[in-house]
Amino acid sequence: MHTYPAILPVIVTVVLAVMGTARPAAAQDWPLRPIRMIAPISAGGGADVAARLLARSMGETLRQQVVVDNRPGGGSVLGTAAAATAAADGHTLLWISGAHAINAAFNRNLPYDSMKSFEAVGLFAKMPFVLVIHPGISAKTVPELLALVRAHPGKYNYASSGIGSASHLGLEMLKLAAKLDMVNVSYKGAAPSLAGLIGGEVQMAMLGPLSVKPHIAAGKVRPLAVTTAGRSAAFPGLPALGESVPQYEMTSWYGMLVPHATPPGIIARLNAAITIAQSDKAVADSLGAEGAELPRNSPQDFRRHLETEIARYMALRQKLDIRLE
Q1: Phi then psi for 320, rounded to 5 degrees?
Q2: How many angstroms separate the CA atoms of 314 and 311, rounded?
Q3: Is the dihedral of CA 172, 173, 174, 178 positive or negative?
Q4: Contact by Cβ (8 Å): 210, 191
Q5: 192 and 109 both lie in a single domain
Q6: HSE (CB half, 13 Å, CA atoms) of 128?
Q7: Where do the DSSP E strands lie in 134-203?
Q8: Is residue 15, in this structure, part of any structural domain at all?
Q9: Which stretch of DSSP H or E encloses residue 132?
Q10: Does residue 165 contact residue 120 with C-beta atoms inside 8 Å?
Q11: Same domain for 122 and 137?
C-alpha cells in the first residue's frame, strides 16, 4: 500500500509517453478500414460523378476503399449534419460544394457550425456556369442583353433551381451588379430549368456546362458568357461575364472537409491524395468537359476559400430578402 505513491509518478510518466506516441501512430497507421465519404447530394448528378472519380483515385492512393455515401436532403444540410457528428478519426469525409457556403450565410438554423464543426482538407475542382438565353431573344452579346433588360423593366424572366440555389443567387448577383429588373422563376432542379428555357417560359438561365452543351450544339439555347473570372478552355469562344460586368464571378466548386479535431497528419495525407487525383488523367479528362480547373492547394488555402465564399454570401444576404430554413 505504502509503495503506490512512490511508483505513481513513474506510471503517469509511462502513460503520458504512450499517449504522446499514439497520435503520430494513428496518422501513420490510418486508414484502418474503408473510408466513408458522405456526399449530401443525390446520386447521378455532376457533383456525385466528381465525388466518385475522387473516391476511386483516393482509394488507390491510400490502399483502402473510399465509399461514397449519398445523403441528400435539406439542401445538403442532412448529410452535412451527419458528418459533423462522426468520429474524428479520418474514416469519415464530407464532400461539399458551394451549397455549404450558401447555407452558412442564408440558413439561420443549421444543426452545425459550417466552419467550427469541420477541418478543411482541400479544394478539388472549380467550374464555370454558362449564361444562356432563349434563341428567340435578339441579344447576341452580354452588353446587348443588359441593354435589352434595362429597356424593359420586369419583362424578362430567368430560370433557377430554387430559392437559394447557385443558379438563383448567381443571377441575383448579376441583377444587383448590372442594375437589372427581372423576375426569378423557380424550378425543381437544373433539368426542369433548362426545359423551361427551351420552351420559352423564361428567357435566360445560368446552368452547368454539361447540361447545356448538347442544347447549345442543337441551337436550342444561345450561350453568351461563362461566369468564371477568366475565359474557360471548355468554351474558348465565350467571354467571361466579368468582361461586361466588372468583378463579377460565380463558380461551381467541390471540396472536402472532415470532422473537427481530425488529426493534422491524417488531413495532410488526405490533401496529398486529392493532389494525386488532380493529376490523374482519367479525372482531368472527365472533368475537363465541364471546364474544370483542378487547383493545387493546402488545407489552409481551402479554409480561406471557404471563409471568402461565406463572407461573399453574407454580404449578398444583406441585400436580398431571402431566408433558408
Answers
A1: -120, 145
A2: 5
A3: positive
A4: no
A5: no
A6: 30
A7: 157-160, 183-186
A8: no
A9: strand 130-133
A10: no
A11: no
Look up cell 449564361; give the residue: 131
Whether the Cβ atoms of residue 171 and residue 158 lie closer than 8 Å to each other: yes
Which of 306, 304, 281 lies closest to 294 in space, CA to CA?
281
HEC readout, 80-99: HHHHHCCCCCCCEEEEEEHH
- For the record, the C-alpha cell of 272 comes out as 496529398
Examine residue 58 and state whether it is found in any structural domain, yes or no. Answer: yes
Helix (H) or strand (E) holding 177: helix 166-178
Burial class (CB in 10 A: 0-12, 13-18, 19+), 276: middle
Cα 170 to Cα 14, 96, 211, 268, 311: the distances in Å are: 58, 18, 17, 33, 15
Q: Is residue 207 assigned to a domain?
A: yes
Of 182, 214, 243, the last residue of a domain is: 243
CATH number for 311: 3.40.190.150
Residue ranges of the chain whose pLDDT lies below 50:
1-25
Residue 96 buriedness (CB in 10 A; 0-12 / 13-18 / 19+) = buried
pLDDT value of residue 210: 86
Quickly tell me which residue has 509517453 as its cell.
17
Residues 68 and 100 in one domain: yes
